[in-house]
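Progress narrative, work stream C.
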Amino acid sequence: MQTPLIDLQDIRKAYGGGDAPQVHVLRGIDLSIHAGEFVAIVGASGSGKSTLMNILGCLDRPTSGEYRFAGENVAGLDSDELAWLRREAFGFVFQGYHLIPSGSAQENVEMPAIYAGIPAAERHARAAALLDRLGLASRTGNRPHQLSGGQQQRVSIARALMNGGHIILADEPTGALDSHSGAEVMTLLDELASQGHVVILITHDREVAARAKRIIEIRDGLIISDSARDDPTVQTSANPGALQAVDLRKRLSAGAEATGAWKGELIDAVHAAWRVMWINRFRTALTLLGIIIGVASVVVMLAVGEGSKRQVMAQMGAFGSNIIYLSGSAPNPRTPPGVVTLADVAALASLAQVKRIMPVNGAEAGVRYGNVDHMSYVGGNDTNFPTIFNWPVVQGSYFTEADEKMPRPSR
């Protein structure tokens, strides 16, 4: 007998544990599926159908048991090999379509090929051929909201076939469709099965399941019936032209690593971003305007802050941080006071490090205005005072050297 394409042995799946109560979803599944089979897995909601599909499609791992794909133990595959399986061997068809709203039908179909690193020209041609094959040749440029439910499901089937789709996992593919569209989708699945694809149909509708060649019923995480057990010829009647397990095992062993996939992903990401911005032009314009205003505000605030900083530093410099006072005061009471003469002032003025110098003489003096007395500081300075202390004259004029040399008026 040929090696099964999918072979499950005592597969169990439980969620929870530890502090949370443990829930057993699958309780020991034994299942073998050969190349070219059309299998329907039926059961009520909560029976474990979707969990089983996720394990079959390598989207989830079992808690215990052994899953062999084309003779290879899936538990021994690394993340890259599992990604290769999901990309090259499986095609997923969901009840909710899961199409990209901003992409056209052709762009949605091409998406898996981008991650496979297929050149743009090749994937354009393949996507167009698949859509033509599924009767959507005139709808390649339509976005999902411009398609009916049946047309959207056909687009999702074409997407599942883009990289080969040797195994089609269809989870309630007719659940959201009317009877006519559902019949069309089932006809497509019949055709795919007749062409050698493995079709695994997950459904709770027994009329839909009756279209399959093999029906497996699951209840409470256990297989309670399998038509292949009652009719052993079901498995051997598979399409002889189907891709056998040995062929997929060779591809898996080879690795089939895509080259240049990152280029396609980068180009597609830029294209998708531009497409979304163009579709929502008004929102994009408002967003850009907000960004411009925000950046401009930050620049203005930085400029204002820098200007204020410089102004404060200039004002602090005007407070006398560059002024040195020299006096004859003694450093302690035991030392006699010194005397700074005008000759000393002239000598200091000759130093290159001294920009300006002036003698200062100050003392407290009483000032009376009417019958009010006030003690104030009175100082004597020369013409350098406004420059040294950065105190310009607000009104009038300051005395000059000529004024200073004028004789004092007689009393």
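Work stream C, second folded protein:
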Amino acid sequence: MFKKILIANRGEIALRIIRTCKELGVKTVAVYSEADKHSLHVTFADEAVCIGPALSKDSYLKIPVIISAAQITGAEAIHPGYGFLAENANFSEICAESGIKFIGPSPEMINMMGNKANAKETMRRNGVPVIPGSDGVVTNVIDGKAIAHEIGFPVIIKASAGGGGKGMRIVQDESEFENAFQTASSEAVASFGNGEVYIEKYLENPRHIEFQIMGDQFGNVYHYGERDCSIQRRHQKLIEESPSPIMDAELRRKMGEAAVLGAKSVNYEGAGTIECLVDKYKNFYFMEMNTRIQVEHPVTEAVNQVDLIRQQILVAGGEKIETMPKDPIGHAIEFRINAEDPEKGFRPNPGKIESLHFPGGFGIRIDSHVYQSYVIPPHYDSLLAKLIVWGTDRKIAIKRARRAMEEFTVEGVKTTIPFHLEVLENEQFLSGNFDTSFLDNFLKEKNIN
């Protein structure tokens, strides 16, 4: 087991990792920008190192500075969390060259599976169903149009190194293609430093289902069931749940076997997520793999009664997967509480939290780094907290979520709490009969762009 781990991240995920490390008896090092000096992950870590100014490019994305912080403090390993450098193969490689364990996949695995086009081709070769589209990246508009005509409009252009809806454009017909291709590529460069894109058939109104997997250094790969991430706006997830309301035993078996097969085909090590789209006939198609822990991992933890961060650290330390996955117990839903104004198109709303009260009670979990009088910096994502509710079934989980959301008080900044309360009263959501178009339609009815 490692004696000291540096967390190359901020906010709630950094604090989440610190808590598990403390339970394992592992010392922690927090890194922070000048804007985050009052964040709780800095307070609760055993050591903290300032790594630069507020902007991410000058701090949390500064690989040499983070490596130096690890070396100076004697950290044997680095946990990247999610976002920032979590899927950066170069960072993983530099960690290895510096004698520091990267708690995540090898550079080769990140390049193979973190690159969306490469991952799709790898899955296809191993018999996992994939969405029709280009064989790898598309380098120019002419080739892209030819592929789009071959598979049929609508198509979706995606950044190969992307995620979170960045570098992604839906194209309904040829007249839109050139502008969408160039825009997606430019956005990919700005967001990921890589302008490569690929093209897929756009499946209209599918479910977005992902499977949590974990692999160790002994060739063992297991899945921990699925999460339904269909409630999303512009490809940004807002509500996730496990198990999926559409899942049955046969579909779970097929998708779980495909997820494990895909991960085993590359000797995958660590935590990862196989993301798929499921059509109305319950046909599923591999979409991409995230080679890191996900924001929504707590719902999987709740229904499996397992600490995935603990598993991740133990696996990185050379141990076998400690806890075997089991059939889901009850139902869990996660709500992202963001400092955003839903009435103004979910515009970020940084500022000072004047008053704060977290809900409590049985089946309630809050993952957050904020507190009363905390000043939300404008430089990063707007996630304030994750409310995770658990119930013996979906109906009970929804009732518990409604009660908890009514208790959740944040004053001083606008948040997505009122939006979540409205969703919790929506008949389509309550029925579980929704798809990725749900939120767009929901917001359109309210005249919110």
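The mean pLDDT is 94. No further action is required on this item.
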